[in-house]
Design goal:
The chain has ten helices and 13 strands. It is of the alpha/beta class. It has two domains: about 150 residues, 3-Layer(aba) Sandwich (Rossmann fold); about 100 residues, Hypothetical Protein, Haloacid Dehalogenase-like Hydrolase, Chain: A, domain 2. A six-stranded mixed beta sheet has the order 8-7-6-9-11-10, with no helix packed on it. Helix 4 links the parallel strand 7 and strand 8. The protein is globular, with a radius of gyration of 18 Å.
Length: about 270
């Protein structure tokens, strides 16, 4: 594959509008870039099933980074070795039990099943359940696999408690990442970040930093942006760290910010 540039793009808050739409100008322009030999790599905390529509509409032809780096694969190329991380089942159950009374929502999933203690309309928006077996109830009783993602919700007064509970699990390679400006946090395996996943994609294609452009809007995009010669945080970015380190797009995610920035660059 002759790649002009690899363009790594976060979805929510970056490529998609606030109501999770792919705006017409963005769709047509990025689809044309894919057809011109640019490799667009979508990178999201979403599972593949809620990324696939956007991947297809943009005519993407390479790997997709799902679950914030826990699952990276190429739906078009079986020779691309999937990169998969998961948590030990017993560790997740142990964490769940220790957080009883402090978290309201607790969800984890594999590629085929969802395990959640209660329905959560916010998570439903990002983790579509179509085609999935949904297990609802006590995580201790229903979880029967090593899940690839784990997300929890707690009010801020319990933030320190949650952090203290998770601290010992760092030795097992389990890290806690808080969602920017949100009540939600997620667990991440050591080595399973967007940055780690993108690094593996860059290596797979034999590319260099100068071959990479990246866009993001939140702290979990930082590792990905660091790998790009031209990296941008969105005008609507909520991360003070990203805004201090990277230039911002001229327009935000509701105004085709990524597409307009790429049009200026390319």
């Amino acid at each position: 594959m002759n790649i002009k540039k690899l363009i790594a793009i976060d979805l929510d808050g970056t490529l998609l509008s606030d109501d999770s739409r792919l705006l017409p100008l963005t769709e047509s322009y990025l689809a044309s870039l894919n057809e011109q030999g640019y490799l667009i790599v979508l990178a999201s905390g979403r599972p593949w099933r809620s990324m696939e529509e956007f991947y297809r509409r943009l005519h993407c032809q390479g790997p997709a980074i799902c679950y914030n780096g826990a699952f990276t694969f190429d739906p078009n190329d079986p020779s691309f070795t999937p990169r998969v991380f998961s948590f030990p089942e017993n560790a997740i159950k142990d964490i769940y039990n220790k957080l009883q009374g402090k978290v309201t929502s607790f969800m984890c999933e594999s590629n085929s099943e969802v395990y959640i203690n209660r329905r959560d309309s916010y998570l439903d928006h990002f983790f579509w359940y179509t085609g999935m077996k949904v297990n609802l109830g006590d995580i201790e009783k229903i979880l029967n696999c090593d899940p690839m993602t784990c997300i929890m919700k707690n009010v801020h007064r319990y933030d320190s408690f949650v952090q203290d509970v998770l601290a010992p699990y760092k030795e097992q390679g389990i890290n806690l990442h808080h969602w920017t400006a949100s009540l939600y946090s997620e667990l991440a395996c050591e080595g399973a970040t967007k940055g780690d996943a993108l690094a593996s994609v860059i290596e797979h294609y034999g590319l260099k930093k100068e071959d990479v452009i990246a866009f993001g809007d939140a702290d979990n995009d930082g590792g990905m942006l660091a790998l790009a010669a031209k990296a941008y945080c969105m005008k609507n970015c909520k991360s003070a760290a990203l805004k201090a380190r990277y230039p911002q797009t001229k327009k935000g995610n509701n105004q085709n910010g990524v597409a307009l920035m790429l049009a200026d660059l390319l």
